[in-house]
Amino acid sequence: MYRARFLQGAGYIMTVVVFTEKNKAASQIANILSGGKPDRKLVEGVPVYMFRRNGQEWQVMGLSGHIMGYDFPQELNNWRSVDPAILIDTRPIKTVTKKPFADAIISLAREADAIILACDFDREGENIGFEAKELASRVSRAPVKRARFSSLSDSEIIKAFDNPVEPDAAMAMSAEARQILDLKMGAAFTRYLTLAVRERARTKEILSIGPCQTPTCGFVYERDKAIKEFNPEDFWKIEALFHAKDMDFKGVHRAGNIKDKAKAAEIFDRIRAGKTGLVTKKSVTEIKTNAPYPLNTTEFLKRASKFLNISPESALEIAEQLYLNGFTSYPRTETNKYADDFDFKSKVIAFTSTEYRDHALAILSGGDIVVRNGIKDGHDHPPIHPIKAVAVKEVEKAVKTEGAGKIYDLIARHFLANLMPAALFEKTHLEITVEKELFDSSGSIMKNEGWMVVYPFETKNDKLLPDIKEQDEVKVKKLENIASKTTPPKHLTEAELLTLMDKHGIGTKATAPSHIETNKKRGYFETKGKTIVIQETGFILMDALSTSIPVVVKPEIRASIESLVQEVEDGSKDLEHAVAEGTELIKMMYSRLTESRDSIVSRLAGSINDGTATDDKKNYIGKCPDCGRVLRIISTEKGRFVGCTGYPQCRNSYPLPREGALSVLRSKNCKKGGAAVIKVGNKYCWAVGIGPCFACDLMKKCFPPEVVGPCPICDGEMCLVTTKDSRFLGCSNRCGRTQSLPQEGRLTVLERKCEVCGWKMIRIKEKDKEAIEKCVNRSCGKDQGKKRLST
DNA sequence: GCAAGGTC
To answer: What is the pLDDT of residues A6-16, one digit of tens each?
Structure first.
């Protein structure tokens, strides 16, 4: 500054140095501020853009995100010799991780008369700017200012650089607090757990814990636990098939899902003779469905997974490629709301020369363009939208990454959809009375496609009802009392997981996919198509942690660090106090971890080195309730029993019957808590730890005979009897009535009943043949009941 | 070798 003022009189030209978050931003900002084409040079291999502005020499350089990072001092890097607890009390050291950038900063700073930090307008951006500021301060006393802008539009950039503000130290320090606390916790917990498990199981795997990855896994665990613990309940549903005006349509009894079998039977008895129904009420309502909000990163990743089956990780990578090639806008944004002065019209016009032509023309002919805007404004970047209007083929030619065309298509269609009117549906509800009982039928017809015309990803099937009025009569074609069971919740999809993470503030717009990847890499969960399924190690770890340190498995861990970080940003707490408080918190959790070492480790060790025992399907019984390892059938010369792989530490064992071939019935769960149910020969079943099933009062509940229909000659029921080399139907009263069954193929008794005789239907699937469904009753003459299935 | 956050 001193030098500048002194030299200015002698024709000295002030040099303004600008640091942006990345090269792309540097070049764009230089373009805007220079009003033309800036010169470009390389400093230490880093591009710098130069131009004259207001009589000053400007030099704009892009950083590469963080160019510094925290780590522990060298001497703490030996996992074996350093107690992980020490890490918690050690202040990590910040060092340069990208030297060329640091060198370039220093080189530019030497010549600078003024420095402007121009990174993204968020916490990490402020912090990245401060990394440059700190390096510059080593060689320069030039004043440092901050340009704040939330998009790279000309007007906003010029405004930001004409009115620079003071850098926000509190905001920058808040990110510092996050980095330090994340590292302390992650490193200490991960090292401790990994080393503890290695004492018991031979593995090179790392078992990591972190304030984002662990709650992410926690979401998956909670869902899969609910699935595991789910108990199906019976319910009955009374359905009618109506007919009017040449059309069949369905109705459901108003009682919906009836849990009480007797009640369902009673209702069904009242109506079963009904031949006609009366339309007692009809209502028609019009429903508007708005286009979804513009795409921010989270929403984009969710839709790419849901509609295109592209994982969040690769969707973000593809979007990055599209962005770098100028097809779409910056993919990392929280904002789902366009700026007031956003120029939609010229973009839509550009689309008139692409395959989206018809949609673009429809928008242009609809008068003023109205955008369907969201409500989130992260003051960062505009929603993800197309920059260039091109054909999908051109995108695929330029960007070779698989899925690039599909992603572009989604972004383009979403953009156009945001400019189109709402879709209109007409929903019709009919109340139909049969024998004084009420049935409901509903239908839906699309009246106006609106934005959905350009958005084929959402399904919009019409459900039609005949055009009938109140007091019209309809024919009853069929009435059914359908027995069903409640179904367990479904596994989480990636889209749902992203929603949960977003809702609980786990990770940022750019990092959510990486936390999912980390968990996969660790073997905690895996993706099967769009759904996510927990794996043994992940389940046991989450299960163990949720009893000893529940906050770690829940989003609370992130929230408590976040609230400290927020206080630093607000200025209500300084960095040192926040780090001290956070450290105390981590210490408390760490001591819970060490206290429960044995229970966590013994269970985890089982999941890791007992892989072979688990894979031994023939002898695998289940988890040992004492130590969490693996129970299996052990046969010796002296006899056989169920024992634990944890032997000799764990001496848990259970007796088995001496005689008979054993086969574990995987689908049966012993209701008295037996570890598994084993079939002994063809005679009886045996619950491990409980004893023979025939001696159990719950036998009939666990092994209900498969009833297929009434016995034709007595009041008994015909049941499926399966022996080692045959299967047939026999009367439950043992009156002597039997019936043979097809002996070949896999036989399944279906819930559905034959429409003619009321016996159950069966399904036979022979190898290399199509499955056949037919009535099980040989005396039932109905051959039409036979149906070939496509499988 | 450990976390999470930037960016390529």
So the answer is: 445 557 899 99
